[in-house]
Structure formats: structure tokens, C-alpha cells
Amino acid sequence: MKLIEIDESTLNFWVVTIPRILPALFLGCVFISIQFYPGGNLIDPDQPGFDLTKNFLSELGGYKSQSGQQNFFSAFFFNGSVFTFGLLSVTFLFAPKLFGPDKASYLLALGGAIIMVPGVIMFALVGLTPHDLYRDEHIFVATNAFRCIVPSTLLILIAMHRENIPLQYLVVGWIFLAINTSYVIFQAGFENPSGGIASLTVSAIFQKVIILLAMINMISFSKAFEYLHEKRERFSFL
What we know:
Shape: elongated
Radius of gyration: 19 Å
Number of helices: 7
Strand content: under 5%
Number of domains: 1
Structural class: mainly alpha
């Protein structure tokens, strides 16, 4: 199965440069967005500003804050950065080209990409479905984005191991996979953020941990992709 043909410099841009730029851009925009958030959380509308232990990141993207105030600037930076993250779908569209000539590695990477691309797109759609305007749609894309990432990450990590990529580029991925799997199970059977301040705190902190690990993992994956791209170029000269 052949993917779209592109030159090596363009391939490097999408599989190495973009996965390094977007996490930094996202985290930077989240930081700015937090500064503009008026206040309130799911339980306490009188809370001043944004509390990392009691607010979900998606609250930054609401049309109004949990305090009922207009949230334009916070939503502008957050939703814009989340939607831009959809560019990573192109990264994973091209990533399987780095694997081979081992057919099993290529098919594993391709399978991972096929699942990862819609997962990334759903993550991007969080930026187009503010939680207070499109609640059901927001919950659907946010929840299923994390669910798609579990099997796709597993398949890509196995493919990377078959390509003998140095372990230091994969450790973060395995940690992220384990914790994200736990998070998906937690969301499905145990999460109840409206059940009290303690439950809200657990959910809010768990979400931040997963998002931060996802950003670090993306940078780590870019290192692995760079290794594969350099290996690909070396073999092309033989």
C-alpha cells in the first residue's frame, strides 16, 4: 500500500519539525489562555481565575467561563491552538513511510496511523466544540480522541521496536501508553467530577498529567522519526 509521494525535506518537516513545534505552541497558548480565564469551576462559580487542580483545560475554550462571564480571549487562544494541533494528522499520515523494508513494521505503523489520524482530528475538533455550546459533541470528540490514541500508540511503539530505535526515544511512549490506558478506564468507569471537590480535583489533575505526557511523547516520537528518517537517507545512498 503506497502513501502519497513527497520529497525528503517535506517528509522531514512533517514527521520531525511539526511534532516539535506544535506541543510548544499548544502549551504556550494554554499558558496565555489561563491568564485571561475569568474564573469559576464545575462546582464553584465564584472561584477566581483558573485553578490547575480544579478546572479542566476545555473550560478555557468555553464561550463563557464557569462564572458566567464572557471568555473570548481565553477561548481564542485555547481553541485556536487545539484546532492547529490537527496538523499532526498529516504527521501520522506520512510516518509509515519511514518504516521498512520490514513489511511487518510498515503494516504495524500503518495500522497505528490509520487509528491515530482520526484520534488527532477528534482532538482538534475539541477546538470547534466549546463545552458550553456543544456539550454532547464536545464530550464525544474529547473522550474518543484518548481512546483512539491507546491502540495507535501501541502499534507504533511495536513498529519502532522492530526497527531497533534506541530505547531512550521510546520510554516516554510506553509510560504515556500505560497512563493513558489507565485514564481511558478511569473515564469509562470511575470519573465523576461533579461528585464533589475531591473527585473534581482527581479528574482535573489526571487530565493535566495525560495532556503533558502526550506533548512530551510527541516530541519523543519526533526524535524516533528523525532517527528513522536519517536511517532511510543513509540506505538511499547505498
